[in-house]
Amino acid sequence: MLLRIFYLNFYKKNYYINLLNKQTKIYTYGLSAPRGKILDINGNVLVDNSKKRVIVYEKNRNISKEKEFIIAKVLSKYIKNNVSVSSYEKINYIYNKEDNIKTFLSEDDYDKYIKSIYSYSDVKKIADKYILDNLINNLNEDEYKIVKIYNLMNKDYSYDKKIIFDDISEKEYFEIINQNIPGISGEYIYERIYPYGNLIRSILGSTGKISKENKKEYLNKGYSLSDTVGISYLEKEYENILKGKKALYKVNKDGSLKLIKKEKQGEDIKLNIDINLEQKLSDILKKHISNTKGKTNAEYYKGSYVMVGKPTGEIVAALGYRLDEKSNFDEVTSDIINSSFTLGSVVKAASNTVAYHENVIIPGKKINDSCVKLYLNAKKCSYKPLGLVDDISSLEKSSNYYQFINALKIMGYDSYKYNMKVTTDKKSFDKYRNIFKSYGLGDKTYIDLPNESLGIKGSIIAPDLLLNLSIGQYDSYTPAQFLSYINTLANNKIRNNLSLSNKKTNMISEVKITDENYERILKGLNNVVTKGTAKGYIYKNDGAGKTGTSETLVDTNNDNIYETKTISTSFMGFMPYNNPKYTFIIISPNISSNKEKSSYYVPINRYIIHDLTKILFENM
Questions:
Q1: Strand order in the sheet with 564-575
Q2: How do the domains of the chain map onto residue ranges?
Q3: CA distance 336 to 353
Q4: Is 136 left (phi over 0), alpha (psi -120 to 50) or beta?
Q5: Which of the 8 DSSP states describes residue 8?
């Protein structure tokens, strides 16, 4: 009994209060309330509200069905142009105006209905078909307007307020109100506006009506089914904060309303996003993506993704652009949590960590870069012969061979022989994936956006695929996970959650690696940008980072068959080296078609990152 009392008085309280109000019509709420604003880190308004007059119909017990048709006819004169009306709307209008199902049935069908041989559903289908075949074409254009208004008055739930006009002139608005038409009133609704246009529009999210899937959840929280709620991304994630409180009215006996409580705007949320930096990043991306059009092997390249953060998890900027068929820019920033990519050699810092953890690396010991050929598998090499490499220079020069030898040792093979037979098991894969997860690769970033993807984990266990995993050519990861990875490297092995909102981030995990080996990884990443594969990427070469390339299959003719092999490139970095303030990642899918005669790819990542880091240095 105590549990039942608690359930009814707390968990279901708002639900039953709303239900009582709807049944008794003692109180009613305003149509909507202003939501809280979404601000950037400097207080610039990214999402605001626009107030709009609307004409609303609300059914009450004093309005009969006959009156509704009269009201619809009165209001129809305010529709200036011809309207499009569906067959369903016409049938619904004719059926309810007649208000006698017998009119549309044969004597035999009606007799079966009376005798319960036919259900109401059965005869309603017969009636609808009769109206469609015989009566629907009798309506004229002026009646279409009445049909449209009537259906607007009766759509959805009977007790909900229905918006009849939301684009009417001020003169007509007051003319309608002054007629004191039963159930008709004027109200304000609040619509979201975006002062910065489509910039990061996709992650700001959208608002809309409560879906059928979420109906029970929202009713239990005291919502009405006609309420506007956050349905995606930040609007959905912070619904409880952003939602406002609607005005409360008392319904008088004559159907008029008395204001009891004014509406209240929802709370604002502030983001870590710097919209000024976003605008500059947008210019950089559009410039270089546009310049890549028509370049060698770039026929399948459509755009790139960039994220900028702080080592402790705050997201300062995020942007994704993709060119459509007409070379217009589609903003696809939401892909940072929805899409995943094989990242290539950028994972080698994590792979070295695995090798340190498994004691298969002797720090400073050099081996001669070469190729690995396993039984029944193709030869695997670095992109070119790299000479002698150790744990630091293998990162600087991006040696695949160094990672292959470490992977063989982790599988239990102390030495490599040409065309050797090798077996492995899930445990070897887990050794890599567990360390990768501690960095954020293949794990939740706990970013404050709903429905975060975990990427794609390869399901086949085979020795050559473990070699691929060690160089970033097997599992795929989201851009958000990629940023989490470089954050952890820049934050003294500590991984915090990613956060778009301006609230404190928290530690999720710590990478298992000694301080000495961690410093060797950082030194290798520093060498990458000062004299290695990413020299010239970071402005003033003051930072650390890692390049990556991976092979990708792309659907080139929209037949859902991914048949064309392309090259995608990635880069991660932080700056400055000795005291990291910013972290950043870029992914450029399908930058090169990698033809037999030319494996050239446009160095777009270097162009974009150099321009970006120059701005970041100016901000420090």
A1: 329-331, 315-323, 305-309, 582-592, 564-575, 544-554
A2: 60-157, 275-619
A3: 25
A4: alpha
A5: I
pLDDT tens string 81-123: 899 999 999 999 999 999 889 999 999 999 999 999 999 999 9
409-427 burial string, b = 16+ CB within 10 Å, else e? bbbebeebeeeeebebeee
Strands (E), 27-123: 27-29, 38-39, 45-57
Does the pLDDT value for residue 25 go beyond 60? no
User: What number of helices (H) and strands (E) belong to the chain?
Assistant: 22, 22
Q: 587 pairs with which residues across the strands? A: 305, 570
- In DSSP notation, 264-282 reads BPPPPEEBS--HHHHHHHH
- % of the chain beyond a pLDDT of 70: 96
Superfamily of domain 275-619: DD-peptidase/beta-lactamase superfamily (3.40.710.10)
Q: Each residue of 175-200: b (16+ CB within 10 Å) or e?
A: ebeeeebbbbbebbbbebeeebeebb
Tokens of 610: 């150099």
Task: State phi, psi for 582 to the nearest 5 degrees.
Answer: -130, 145
Return the pLDDT at 617: 93
* Amino acid, single-letter form, for residue 410: I
